[in-house]
Write a structure and sequence with these properties.
Chain lengths: 289, 352
């Protein structure tokens, strides 16, 4: 990505920032934690200091008393968005007082499985004794919040936490038969369900953060799947997520960069979406590192 | 001084005791849902049954996707006085875009969405929006384009709203069938004057069928409840279907039964050419008739029986006014889904 294109994209994010300090999935939408965290990651190396500070302040203001985050100001229940907030706050230079409470909450929060019979579930072929992270309280574990959970703990300096190893086990169990991941249902009644780009990219990033080698079959088949899926991708969200994951492993995947850049609008953003624009910036640059 | 209890007093005491025992029995039996809920549902269901106003449901032949506009126009005329008002209303058309898989008819065909949008525009709707929150995929644009819906939206100049990332409105769930109490639902749905459910006619391995009521699961936003919408499945699927349906209350249902899905739906079943549209304003009645077209009886689809019992709509044949072609003339024998029940809390409704 050219420096001018990158600056234009970061300027776009600053322009569409809500007066509250956060960002929505779409411009002119009320702020959510996920796009706000992504925008903070995408602005980490920018000159938009005021936008970053306002974003961090909004995140800290949104933290619930128990240390968690709901998905937006409308959501009083802590859940998966907490992992995004931790990731974003660890990327800021200053140490946030919100972080310690958040990490403590996240490390102990888990799914609600009730009594799990030993062995593999006969219907879904999954091992429900392996714990990841759910989307919400009372839910089962799924791929995306588990991958985010791993990244959050590692970024917060908790890489040796037992839940990191457990999370890796979870991702190993939920991988699709052909490699890669979908939401977390690789099988259904004896048939394989296909992988998808965003969860595959995020899971690969999480496994890298957790220290898995690229030679591990889980990673190598996941990467091969991601590259295969990216060849058929044509929409900016799939391209951006896939490219972000691939570039973490120094895979450039041919003309993907040009295909993603082609979607950048004259105002600097992608689809007038701060969420998508932030993922595109991260995919095309190295801001998250 | 000895007092004798008269026979009449004894009978009265027995009667009072019997009533108290009966009430206690009902209280215990209805404990999982609460006596007040049970009473509310029972009364509403019996009142709807006694009122005896049949729900019109239209079945029209539609051999191919080139015939949808004519077939829907015919259904609209047959619906007549029962058709919802469209003029000056904000209408949300909700197709089923659960996923787009090669060679699997898992999603509503874009030609059906096109016909519904055209109908709304022709009848003076102020604003028409197509909206969906996919259960499995984050990239809504990819689904819209791969399914062919994108071309329809551009031609009709209609926006698409990804309900997974829409603004959230805290919405009480009036049905109180589950323990959820409330959900954060998309503003686009909550502020619509009319929601039109446009599902694919499909078997479903957990619910039996996936039609206009189950299609409302797509309004539950992924940005809060995740991908998939697991919060609903864990609550007891049948009750969650009722819960979401009553909260959203789509005012019209148009079922894409031109090519349905039999067997292991909602994703991995096989195509079943059926050649019909099923249209109506009572989603329970529409789903009942669509199930019959697929070859199932309402009794086989437990959420339909429950919906009838709680008074959400008509599932009994005598409470449905069929218009258009007789069901027998278009009826199929869909390969049933592998029925695997999801674990969920036992409820009085299940006992009923």
């Amino acid at each position: 990505m050219s420096a001018a294109g990158r600056t234009a994209a970061q300027d776009y994010l600053a322009r569409v920032q809500e007066t509250s300090g956060g960002w929505g999935y779409q411009a002119r939408q009320r702020a959510f934690v996920e796009p706000t965290a992504l925008c903070l990651l995408a602005l980490a190396d920018s000159t938009q200091t005021a936008a970053r500070q306002a974003g961090v302040a909004w995140l800290e203001q949104m933290q619930l008393p128990d240390g968690s985050w709901g998905v937006s100001a409308a959501d009083p229940e802590g859940g998966w968005a907490t992992a995004w907030a931790i990731w974003a706050l660890t990327s800021t230079a200053a140490t946030s007082p919100a972080l310690a409470r958040a990490v403590s909450w996240w490390a102990t929060w888990q799914d609600q499985r009730g009594q799990v019979p030993p062995g593999r579930d006969p219907v879904l072929w999954l091992d429900f004794s392996v714990t990841g992270w759910p989307w919400n309280p009372g839910g089962a574990s799924w791929v995306e919040p588990t991958a985010l959970g791993l990244i959050a703990l590692v970024r917060a300096g908790q890489g040796a936490h037992p839940r990191v190893a457990e999370g890796v086990r979870y991702l190993r169990d939920r991988a699709c038969a052909t490699g890669g991941w979908n939401v977390g249902n690789p099988y259904m009644l004896g048939q394989n369900l296909p992988p998808a780009i965003p969860p595959t990219a995020l899971a690969l990033m999480a496994l890298q953060e957790a220290g898995l080698a690229e030679t591990d079959p889980l990673v190598s088949t996941g990467l091969a799947t991601l590259e295969r899926l990216l060849q058929q991708a044509h929409t900016p969200l799939n391209l951006a997520w896939g490219l972000w994951g691939a570039r973490r492993y120094q895979r450039h995947a041919g003309d993907l960069i040009a295909r993603l850049e082609k979607h950048q609008a004259p105002d600097g953003g992608w689809r007038d979406s701060p969420y998508l624009t932030a993922v595109a910036i991260l995919a095309l640059g190295e801001a998250a590192r | 001084m000895s007092r004798r209890i008269s026979r009449r007093t004894l009978l009265r005491l027995g009667l009072v005791g019997g009533i108290l025992l009966g009430l206690e029995y009902i209280r215990r039996q209805t404990a999982p849902m609460g006596f007040d809920n049970w009473l509310r549902w029972s009364l509403r269901g019996r009142l709807a049954w006694l009122a005896g106003i049949p729900s019109p449901v239209v079945v029209t032949r539609c051999p191919t996707y080139q015939d949808v506009a004519d077939s829907l126009h015919e259904a609209w005329l047959l619906l007549a006085e029962a058709a919802p008002a469209l003029r000056d209303r904000t209408v949300v058309v909700k197709p089923n875009l659960v996923d787009v898989l090669p060679d699997r008819p898992a999603h509503t065909h874009p030609a059906v969405v096109d016909a519904v949008v055209a109908l709304c525009q022709a009848h003076g709707a102020r604003c028409v929006v197509v909206a969906e929150g996919s259960t499995f995929q984050r990239d809504a644009e990819a689904l819209v384009e791969t399914s062919g819906l994108g071309a329809v939206l551009r031609q009709r100049r209609v926006p698409f709203v990804d309900l997974n990332t829409d603004e959230l409105v805290d919405t009480p769930l009036p049905g109180r069938y589950t323990s959820l109490g409330h959900l954060l639902l998309p503003r686009t749905i909550i502020e619509a004057d009319l929601v039109i459910s446009v599902p694919k006619m499909k078997c479903h391995h957990w619910a039996g069928v996936s039609l206009s009521m189950k299609n409302m699961f797509g309004v539950v936003p992924g940005c809060k409840y995740g991908w998939p919408k697991n919060v609903l499945h864990r609550q007891n699927l049948d009750l969650s279907i009722l819960e979401i349906y009553e909260a959203v209350r789509p005012g019209l249902a148009v079922v894409d039964g031109i090519v349905g899905m039999e067997g292991d739906g909602p994703l991995l079943g096989q195509a079943r050419p059926t050649g019909v549209l099923v249209v109506g304003c009572d989603g329970v009645a529409v789903d009942t008739v669509a199930s019959q077209v697929m070859g199932f009886t309402p009794a086989q689809i437990s959420y339909l029986s429950l919906a009838e019992w709680v008074g959400l709509g008509a599932s009994e044949p005598r409470r449905i006014a069929l218009r258009g072609v007789p069901v027998e003339t278009v009826q199929q024998s869909y390969v049933p889904p592998p029925r695997v029940s999801l674990p969920g809390p036992p409820t009085i409704l299940e006992q009923v």
